[in-house]
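chain below, 281 aa
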Amino acid sequence: MSGNSSRLVKNRKKFLEKVNKALEGRYKWWLLLALPAWVYAAFIAVQYAVGLLATFLNSIGVPLSSLNVVIFNTALSFIVYILTLLVVILVPLYVMKRKTTLRLLGVDDWPTFLEILISPLAYVAYFLVTSVLVAIAVALFSLDMTQTQTLPFNQMMLGTQWQFLLAFITMVVLAPIAEELLFRGYLYGKLRKSFSIWLSVLVTSAAFGLAHLWAGTDKPLQWSVAVDTFSLSLVMCAAREYTGAVWVPMMVHIIKNGIAFYLLFINPDVIRQINALLPLM
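prediction:
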């Protein structure tokens, strides 16, 4: 009898272990949707909350509307990015006791000389990957690749050096750092704990591309921007995996946005000259 009882206990234990593993696996697969949705939902929620706060402050007489639009947009971007990072990291910590470490974010050490050296090479890789994917997207779906990304600034706003400086800080420094911490840091780091490299790369890149697709209720979907940012994320996820940190993705993102800032705001004639040459090619 004792032998039968011990056998029953062992069998029951094995059965429960199998059930737990099955449930754990099923739960992990939900992360493929839950984690990207959480990052995006946090960003949208923070945007709405900050917008409502600004509206309320205006209604009680705080003269936010009298602020220079460049200062206002810079401050708004800074607040939204910082609060989104705090919400994404701290809410799971206090609600579900799920800690996000510096190592998971990819910022547990300073950038190395090698990471600085390979960043321009990674940018070249991004350019090549984007060229291929854009060609495929145009051939298969006839996408309009002349679409431009909706930005918080335009040339009409930037009349002085300090306005150019604030716009530069927002677009070339703040946005790349915050977006890399959110996507190649938090999202990719969390996914990589449970899934393969390729699945983590594809989900992170799809989420990053989709995050740039919608530009507003009165504007068309930015498919060209989505393809471009998806391509960018493929390369930056590979860099994150290879180096174990987000420094290369940050530097590549800064290079990309820096070039875009120069072409859009410093020397826009270059774009016009390229567009004029395209029909001749």
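The mean pLDDT is 87. The two ends are 88 Å apart (CA to CA).
thats it, cya
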